[in-house]
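Design request, tokens follow.
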């Protein structure tokens, strides 16, 4: 009985969802850009990146991204966190890209669509739940697969 009370009072360092993020490096497998007018899909474009892009989450809540937009780079270590309901990933990571601005914060507020031991799907862009039925929106869906980190699953 005492062991049950003691074990129930222990505080874990990471939630199970945080542990899934930090369990390895995530390699970009697919990018889908969907264009909408209101809730009607106008077009969907699949983008096949011709390079390896990796997203790494560390247990100390830092993260890096390598080769974003197929530009040889590794982002400076940035902070990552999950919202209280653990449905959104937030990072302050800045990556060079091919936009006119030359850099972006692609995962500053990303909706977690799927998270498992071997797959991660994030959505970015115009992901707010309320929008005008005439508003033009763009949603980017990022699909990642988990890779071994230092030869360990």
């Amino acid at each position: 009985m005492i062991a049950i009370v003691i074990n129930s009072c222990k505080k874990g360092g990471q939630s199970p969802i945080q542990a899934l993020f930090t369990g390895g490096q995530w390699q970009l497998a697919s990018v889908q850009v969907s264009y909408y007018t209101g809730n009607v899909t106008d077009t969907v474009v699949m983008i096949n990146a011709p390079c390896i892009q990796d997203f790494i989450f560390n247990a100390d809540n830092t993260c890096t991204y390598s080769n974003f937009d197929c530009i040889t780079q590794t982002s400076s270590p940035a902070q990552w966190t999950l919202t209280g309901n653990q449905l959104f990933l937030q990072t302050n990571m800045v990556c060079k890209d091919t936009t006119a601005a030359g850099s972006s914060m692609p995962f500053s507020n990303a909706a977690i669509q799927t998270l498992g031991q071997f797959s991660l799907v994030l959505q970015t862009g115009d992901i707010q739940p309320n929008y005008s039925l005439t508003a033009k929106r763009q949603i980017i869906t990022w699909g990642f697969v988990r890779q071994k980190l230092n030869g360990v699953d």
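Comment from the thread starter after seeing the answer: thanks! Residues 71 and 97 are 7 Å apart (CA to CA).
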